[in-house]
Amino acid sequence: MHTEEACFVPSSSTRRRSLVLTPLALATGLVLTAFGTAAQAQAPRNHATLAMVAEPQTLDPMASTADLVGTIMQHVYEPLYTFDAQWKVVPMLADAAPKITPDGKRYSITLRKGVMLHSGRELNAEDVVASLQRWMEQAPRGKALAKEVESIQAKGALGIEIVLKQPYAPLLAQLALPSGMAAIMAKESIATPLKDFVGTGPYRFKERRPDQFVLLTRFDKYSPRKEAASGYGGKREALIEELRFTPVPNANTRVEGALAGQYDFADLLPVEALTRLEKSGGKTVPILTPSFGFPYLVLNTKEGVAANQAVRQALQVAIGQGEMLAAGFGDTRFFIAEGNHFPKGSPFYATAGTDQYNQRNAKKAKEMAEKAGYKGEPVRVLTSRQYDFHYNMALLMAEQLKRAGFKVDMNVVDWATLVQRRNDAKLWDVYVTHSGQFPEPMLSPPQLGDGAPGWWSSPAKQAALAAFNTETDPAKRGALWAKVQQVVYDEVPYINVGKFNGLSAKSPALQNYQPATWPFFWNTSIK
Q: How far apart are CA 114 and CA 31, in angstroms?
C-alpha cells in the first residue's frame, strides 16, 4: 500500500523512493571509502539483514494486498509484466508486449523460453493459466479483473490467450503490480493455503521462523532478462547469497538498529529520525522517497455506523486532513495537503470534489450526523502502531470526530491483526492505511475494485468505473477519472488524507540499492 509529489519536487511525477538525500552525497562517498578500508580487515559476508515493519501475515502473494507481503515475495515470484523506472509496463516472464486484436478484447502472450522454476523444470503456459486462474479466484484485484475476462487458455507450450468481455485498459498494469501479485507459480504447488513457494524469481524460499525472519536464498538456475535493469524491469541478478527479512515492528527499534549497523536496510522510519540519521557519521545512509504514498481512511459501507452514506459524509466534513498530516509527519518536508488524488502533471490530475477536502467543520458535521440519524453509536477506528503516522493521524482524527459529536472507540492492534480484522465487517467502522499512487488509477486503492474491505458498491461507482476502464484512449481517460473522483467524494467509501514522502535507511555496505516503492534487493551487493 504507498504516492507522489511534495516539497522536494521529484524530477518525474512517477518517481518514488528515488532520492538518497543529496546533502549527504559527498559525505557518504568519503564514508564509503573509509568504511571499505575497515571492511577489508573483516571476514567477508554474503547475506543482508533487512528490517521490515512487521511480521507478514502470509507469504502467499495472492492472499494479501499488504505491501510487506509483496516486498518479500517479489523476490520469489515474478509476474508476466512489470514496471520500469518510468512506471511503464514492460515484459518480465512474457517474451514481449502482447498482440492485441483491433477490438481490444483478445491478448496473445508468448512466454520466454528456458525460464526455470525453483523445482527444477521449465515454466510453461499451463503454469501461467493455473496461476492466473487462482489469482482471479483469490486476490482482491484478481477477483475484480475476473469480471472482465471471458477466458484464459494455453496455446501450445509457451502461448497464452486472454479474451476479455469488453476492452479493459488497465489489464497489463493489473498483471504487473507487486502488491496482491498475479504471481506465476508452478501449477503442482498451487494449493489453499499455499504451502510450497515455487516461483521463478532470483531468490527461492528457504525458511520462515515466525517473528524472527523469512529467509530467501539465491536461485542458481535463475533465467534473467537481457535488457538493462530499469525499475522492476530488465536484468535481475541475485548478487547476495541470502536475504533475511526481519520483522521489527517498533519504528524506533528500526532506527536504533540502523544507527548501530545491525541492519543493512531499515524500512519506513519515523520522520523525526531524519536528523539523527543525517548526523550518524556515515554509519547509515538515509533515503528519502518523494511522493512515496498517500494515507487514506477506509470506511465500512457494509455494516455499522458508516454503512449510512449520510453519516460517512458527516465524518468527511468533520475531518481536517491538514491537521492529520501534521500529526502524522510533523516536518512539512514530508507531506502535502491537497484533495486531488493525483498530482499536477499526471494525466489524472483533477479537482472534482476537492471542495469536500480538509473541511474540519465540527458544527456542520454535527448537524449532518444528527440529520442522518446518528444516535451516538461508537465509531470504531482500527489502527496500528506499526506505521507511526497511521497511529498519530488516528489519534488526531479521533479528537476531530469527538469535537463534531461522534463517540470514538480506538482499536489499536498490530498490523497483521489489522489486516485480518479488516476482513470482518462486524469489527470496525474506519481503518487507517496508506497506498501507492501509480500511473494507472485502478491499481490503488483496492477499494476501487470489488470485494476489498469496505465493500463499496453502488450504481454510480459501477457507471463511472465502467466508462473509465473501457476507454482505451489515454487522452480521454483523464476526464473520466475526474468523474470517478467525484463519486468517491460524494459516497465517501474512503477518504484520501494527502500525500507523503517516505524515509528509510541503508548501511554503507549495501551497494547499488535502487530506491523503490516495494524495496527489492536483486542487483544489490554487500561490500
A: 43
Element (H, E) at 420: helix 415-421
Helix (H) or strand (E) holding 154: strand 149-154
Task: Please name which of 430, 361, 359 lies closest in space to residue 398, comparing C-alpha atoms.
Answer: 430
Q: Which range is least confidently modeled, 236-245, 249-258, 342-351?
A: 342-351
pLDDT digits (tens, 9 = 90+) for 52-73: 999 999 999 999 988 899 999 9
Strand, helix or coil for residue 203: strand
Nearest residue to 438 (alpha-carbon basis) of 512, 516, 494: 516
Q: How distant, in Å, are the alpha carbons of 325, 345, 352 from that of 342?
A: 17, 8, 11
Q: What pLDDT digit, counting tens, does each position of 334-370 carry?
A: 899 999 998 887 788 999 999 999 999 999 999 999 9
Smallest CA-to-CA distance from 366 within 320, 402, 410 is with 402
Between 290 and 432, the more confident residue is 432
Task: List the one residue out of 262, 256, 283 whose CA is nearest residue 34.
Answer: 283
Question: How far apart are the two ends of the chain, measured CA to CA in Å?
Answer: 31
Can you state the angle between helices 309-318 and 388-403, rounded to 10 degrees?
Answer: 100
Tell me the HSE value of 443 on the side-chain side, using a 13 A CA sphere: 27
Query: Among 4-8, 24-28, 121-125, 239-243, whose mean pLDDT is lowest?
Result: 4-8
Task: Report how far residue 110's alpha carbon sits from residue 89's, in angstroms, rounded to the nearest whole number.
Answer: 16
- Which element (helix H / strand E) includes 254? helix 251-259
The x, y and z cell numbers of residue 70, run together, are 509483496
d(CA 16, CA 4): 7
pLDDT of residue 88: 87
10-14, 15-19, 152-156, 505-509 — which is least confidently predicted? Answer: 10-14
> Residue 23, Cα to own-chain centre: how many angstroms?
28
Parallel, antiparallel, or unpaired: how do β-strands 89-91 and 81-83 relate?
antiparallel
- Beta carbons within 10 angstroms of residue 492's beta carbon: 23
* Helix (H), strand (E), coil (C) string for 51-63: EECCCCCCCCCCC
Total number of residues shown for the chain: 527
E strand spans, 272-427: 285-299, 335-336, 378-384, 407-413
Backbone angles phi, psi at 230, to 5 degrees: -155, 115
Supply 166's cell numbers: 469488453
CB of 120 closer than 8 Å to CB of 221 = yes
Amino acid at 509: A
Residue 21 confidence (pLDDT) above 50: no
Please check whether residue 425 is in contact with residue 304, taking contact to mean a CB–CB distance below 8 angstroms.
Answer: yes
Bridge partners (DSSP) of residue 106 are 163
Q: pLDDT value at position 223?
A: 96
Q: Which residues pair with 47 in a beta bridge?
A: 242
5 pLDDT higher than 90: no
Q: Which three cell numbers stand for residue 205?
A: 524460499
**For residue 148, what are the contacts with CB-CB under 8 A and spacing of at least 6?**
164, 165, 166, 168, 171, 469
